[in-house]
Amino acid sequence: MNRHVFALQQVARRTISSSVRRQVDNKVPQKQKMFQEDNGMPVHLKGGTSDALLYRTTMALTILGAGYVVYELVKAAFPQKKD
């Protein structure tokens, strides 16, 4: 039993340590330049269409949630009469 665990550890160690690492481009300087330029846009929208879509979705959900809270509060404040 112990021998099998040791063999499994060796195989796992061998496959992890021998895997080839791929080089990743450093995109930080380009992103910093894009976010620091003064083009009149707010920083939370400088990321492009995905940022705009996320912003609009968040705002819509916030407005809907606030409306629902007001609805529930009014419904609780004025209960229906029982016959």
Automatic annotation (TrEMBL):
Task: Provide this UniProt record's keywords sorted from A to Z.
Answer: Acetylation, Membrane, Mitochondrion, Mitochondrion inner membrane, Oxidoreductase, Transit peptide, Transmembrane, Transmembrane helix
Record-annotated membrane-spanning stretches: 53-74
Q: In which pathway does it act?
A: Energy metabolism; oxidative phosphorylation
Subcellular location(s) of the protein = Mitochondrion inner membrane
The family assignment reads: Belongs to the cytochrome c oxidase VIIa family.
GO CC annotation terms, alphabetical = mitochondrial inner membrane; respiratory chain complex IV
**SUPFAM superfamilies hit by this protein:** Mitochondrial cytochrome c oxidase subunit VIIa (SSF81419)
InterPro entries in alphabetical order: COX7a, Cyt_c_oxidase_su7a_sf, Cytc_oxidase_su7a_met
Q: What name goes with this protein?
A: Cytochrome c oxidase subunit 7A2, mitochondrial
The cross-references to Gene3D superfamilies, in alphabetical order and at most eight, read:
Cytochrome c oxidase, subunit VIIa
Origin species: Perca flavescens (American yellow perch)
- Keyword Transmembrane helix listed: yes
GO MF term list: oxidoreductase activity
Q: According to Swiss-Prot or TrEMBL, what is its membrane topology?
A: Single-pass membrane protein
What's one GO BP annotation on this UniProt entry? mitochondrial respirasome assembly
Tell me if Transit peptide is a UniProt keyword of this record. Answer: yes
* Pfam family of the protein (one): COX7a
